[in-house]
Amino acid sequence: MCGIAGLINKKNDRFNIEETLVSFKKILNHRGPDDSGTFIHENKYGFINLRLSIVDIASGHQPIFNEQKTMGIVFNGEIYNYLVIRRELEKKGYLFQTKSDTEVILRGFEEYGTELFGKLNGMFAFCIWDIKKDEIYLVRDHFGIKPLYVYQDGDVLVFSSEIKALLSLEGIDTSLDEIGFRDHLTFRYIQAPYTLFKRIKRVEAGTCMRIHNGTAASFRYWDTSYDDPYPAPSLKTVKEELSEILKKAVSSQLMGEVPVGVLLSGGIDSSTIAYMINKLGANLTTFNIGFPEVNEFEYSRKVAKKFGLKHIEVSTTTEELIKDFDAVNLALDEPIADAACLPLYRLCKELKKHVMVVLSGEGGDEVFGGYPQYATLLSDMPPYAERFNAFLKQSWYFDNQDDYLLNRTIPPITSRYNKYFEEQPLLNGMLSYDMRTWMPENLMMKADKILMAHSLEGRFPFLDRELFDYVSRLPQKYKIDSQYTTKWILKEIMKDQLPTNIVTRKKMGFTVPIELLLKKMKPQVLDTANSVSRLPIADVLDIKKIKKNIESYYKGQFNSNPHLKTTFILNIWTLFTLLYWFKFSLPRYTYGNRP
């Protein structure tokens, strides 16, 4: 796991590349405190890698070059099938100087070109440059586990693992993007390719940006596919094959030369990982976090005990979360209103004492069809179009998000999403939508930023390529059965391996007491609302209306209606986190305040 960044400055000398890379090193040091390396070519472009050493600790220094020194790479992530690809290349006559997966990517690109990207099974964001062809490739993994941002302005292109490095550049254009704001207000995170800034974009999951002679163009090298097999495999076959694929997915992600742990909530996803670890003979430590009054400790203890795994529980309070609030905002790199970021940050403090890598069950719901709304909408009888709209609405948190925007002429938000639901069954459309939006830009984004703030690497066995490719092509009945049981096939596989109440219990999720946080942070919330009217954000948002709604909340306007009150609480938290990021975090990223 690493941080990467680079500057392409071909037709002007607006930025001193060497000085810029030195600055990037300071800003991104938490992503790779063990080692760093740079490459500069004729002050036209330069790249940096900051390394968290996990695989091939002794000789995995980056950048890595080909034998002729005409091609190089800086890489962030892990490739779980790199040994398979390496053996293919060795048969073709390639020689390797290191044992690292980074070198395999570079040599694989020499052999296969962009076709290599689809062969990779792992999490990654990397930059490959070819001096002879004057080409640069920026690539993000299939599921968007690793982040990658790009700033473009005329002849200058800058990329980084984190936005804060881009914002540190002197004189860059930080014009705000209304689409990014509406995304945050609608979903509580921002969907690719947008950010809050017009000139800063995300490289989308499964996408490559190719820069040739200074001109950038993106193409998709991989996309989700849900083609059902014909004839449908038998239940016996699916259980046998899927069990082996799950075991292989967990086994491949135990790679490395450092201690590995597991986030164990006691839900079926993380418990499946714990079972597979036990089956593989690994003796890892498991971790969970909760509040004294609300937690899942009963279930995680039960699973850890069953499989003989050491288990560490972290009990936290709202007071501790509030103490971490500023640090979390800085770590997130952009506003994300998912309050689960706060306890995750607290848990990472404990993880750091024991491990450098942690496995997590994220992705199980999106791959196997685990969210309750999937089953609810499949069981409804309205026309397809109405159910499609209902699903999108369940992905939104504001019905009236446009009311907070001063510019209300932005194209309808649903215009982006028809592609997910065209010519495929409703469940496949919902899964595809969540895999392309919610998964990379909320779940993976917060996991990457919070874990890397503590120099920790997160791995996600349910996002294994082979596992996804297999499950995505199973008929719907294996994901949600005729009784609308979610994750049906996973539960069938695990029902004899896990305690019954682990398999059958309702999905809980991590509950953060947002209402209590807002109550205890009332002075901070009100002060933030009153102090942003002179910031650039006031050119995009109706600050008066936001202040009025925040004041109404604290006056108890919706206390008599529990449903409206719950929605209002989420709305206020979403608004507050957005305003606070602009008030507190952004000034600390920008030029003049950089480290």
Automatic annotation (TrEMBL):
Provide the binding site for ATP: 263, 289, 360-361
Protein name per Swiss-Prot or TrEMBL: asparagine synthase (glutamine-hydrolyzing)
SUPFAM superfamilies attached to this UniProt entry: Adenine nucleotide alpha hydrolases-like, N-terminal nucleophile aminohydrolases (Ntn hydrolases)
Swiss-Prot/TrEMBL keywords? Amino-acid biosynthesis, Asparagine biosynthesis, ATP-binding, Glutamine amidotransferase, Nucleotide-binding
**Site note Important for beta-aspartyl-AMP intermediate formation, residues:** 362
Give its E.C. classification number: 6.3.5.4
What GO cellular-component annotations does this UniProt entry give?
Answer: cytosol
One function term, GO molecular function aspect: asparagine synthase (glutamine-hydrolyzing) activity
Under NCBIfam families, the record lists: asn_synth_AEB
Originating organism = Candidatus Roizmanbacteria bacterium RIFCSPLOWO2_01_FULL_38_11
Reaction(s) the record says it catalyses: L-aspartate + L-glutamine + ATP + H2O = L-asparagine + L-glutamate + AMP + diphosphate + H(+)
Query: Per the database record, which ranges form the Glutamine amidotransferase type-2 domain?
Result: 2-214
